[in-house]
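RESIDUES AND SHAPES:
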Amino acid sequence: MHPTMPITIEHINKHYGKQQVLHDVSLRLEDNEVVGLLGPNGAGKTTLMKILLGIIKADKDTEHQPKAVGPLKAGYLPEQNPLYLDMYVKEYLQFIAGLTHSKDEVEPLIERVGLQPEAGKRIGELSKGYKQRVGLASALMGNPELVVLDEPTTGLDPNQIEDIRQIIREEGKKRTVILSTHILQEVKEMCSRVVIIDHGHIRADRQIDEIDNLEEFFRSVTRSETKEPTPN
């Protein structure tokens, strides 16, 4: 039970200099759901996620800053997974656990994300797929209520992609996950709900099972004249 949920943001805007990257965005996240944040590159997905996490702030004239983010435990896996490559896997996770007072979680997390075969290796020796597992374990440390994942399967081979997808599906049964991607197949495979953002505007917020054809729906709401991203 998460008494601080849901997370709600209302009518937020964000400028970087003269460029406006978010326009009057409102969003509500509920308990135990995997939400796909879908949009073309440069649509504003990463900026929105960072505002949700409190990493950056919306414009000062925004009507309502995000509610419930402050007291929430939140985990974040950015697109560029930041890892200490000279550290051993278990050593690194113990270090993260010390920061979050979660030392009892290291061994269970290693098992949950399938890192047992690589736990004694240096992170720099791992494949990209196993590096992503280390990043996921780090994001899950401390049993967060909200986990935010930015393009978590980019650059992985098909087997690695399916492994990471399965981990995310399982975690979505225990906590709220928001998954940013530009790959339509990712949303169909993992998410119960899709939020489509384009040019800083929320174009749609729907349950996946209400959409007959996600590709056509995506094109219709973004009015995109370019080819859709190639699904994995």
